[in-house]
Amino acid sequence: MSPKISVIMLTYNHGPYLHQAIEGVLSQKTNFPFELIVCNDNSPDHTDEMMAQFTEKYPKIIRYYRHEKNIGFIENQRFAFSSAKGEYLAYCEGDDYWTDDHKLQFQFDFLESNKDYVMVTARNLLLNQNENALSDDGKEEMFKNQEYIDYNQTSFFSERPTQTFTYLIRKIYLDLKWIDIYPNYRDLYYFYHLLSFGKGRAYNKVVGVYRLHDGGVYSSLETEKKMRTSIEIFKSIRNINDDKRANTQILKDLDLLISKYYYKKEFTIPLFNLNLYSSIFERFMISGNIKTFSFQLFKILKYTFHRLTNKI
């Protein structure tokens, strides 16, 4: 019997966490068959030994692939997506894990009953691995005690109540051609294109835990690099699709970069920070707002004067 859902699990050096990730998938209680596709990008750890035990025990559910050489995250993802047999796709990297045993079932039921939706997501907790501390995902204000939030391609540019490892999507709308079109392919690219075919729904319920640790693909990026990565992602969406709605998120990221990082966090004397000037000018070229531009230049002098006088 063909699986209804293919769960994609990419792994590289996730040995300490992989067992928990797999158990979170295998614990799913469903009235339909699903498969788990684990793609190991030539990890130099004990993943092979661990997976041998799992595949022996669950041969009808787990398909395990180990690349003979490291092909990188993007190509590993392409391989996994291309291998999927299910009508729907779910995703969980080898260092995250699901905590809701009915995650697949309730999302499957929703998409089966609502053909105008192309994806359904939910909330998660964050686990700071270094401190062994759990926290929420910071989206309380977004949900405001609502049972769910619906989103579309336009609202995607202002807020995204989504997390990759919580989604279930219709595979028919996942076009792998975009992997070759976008530089450094990201999940936000296929979210954007999926939403051109229908709506998304995010449920205000926790279904898993996203692990923050030094080896994470995104969680290990420095603060400035994270913001710059987001800016470049949305600039690519804007430029490739001639979609100026992306400027909404670009401006939001630039404002955060300028006010929360360049002015306050990183540099003692803003007057000599060329990256700050570049960001302010970039913001002005997008918005054309001379008032904000002038105010931000004035703040450079204000912050510089304040810090220099406090040192004397």
- Percent range for β-strand residues: 15-25%
Structural class: alpha/beta
- The count of strands amounts to 10
Number of helices: 11
Description of the molecule:
By secondary structure, the protein is an alpha/beta fold. Helix 8 runs antiparallel to helix 9 (247-266), helix 9 (247-266) packs antiparallel against helix 10 (274-287) and helix 10 (274-287) runs antiparallel to helix 11. Strands 1, 2, 3, 4, 5, 6, 7, 8, 9 and 10 form a ten-stranded mixed sheet that branches. 44% of the residues lie in helices and 20% in strands. The N and C termini lie far apart (76 Å). Helix 2 links the parallel strand 2 (34-40) and strand 3. The chain is globular. The chain has eleven helices and ten strands. Residues 217-221 have low confidence and may be disordered. The longest helix is centred in the last third of the chain and has 22 residues, at 290-311.
Summarize this entry quickly.
This protein is an alpha/beta fold and 312 residues long. The protein contains eleven helices and ten strands. A hairpin with a 4-residue loop joins strand 6 (117-128) and strand 7 (133-136).
Any descriptors?
alpha/beta; 10 strands; about 300 residues; ten-stranded mixed β-sheet; about 45% helix
Lay out the secondary structure.
Elements: E1 5-11, H1 15-26, E2 34-40, H2 47-57, E3 62-66, H3 73-83, E4 88-91, E5 97-98, H4 103-113, E6 117-128, E7 133-136, H5 140-143, E8 148-151, E9 168-170, H6 178-181, H7 187-194, E10 199-212, H8 223-241, H9 247-266, H10 274-287, H11 290-311
Parallel strand pairs: 1-2, 1-4, 2-3, 6-10
Antiparallel strand pairs: 4-9, 5-10, 6-7, 6-9, 8-10
Helix pairs in contact: 8-9, 9-10, 10-11
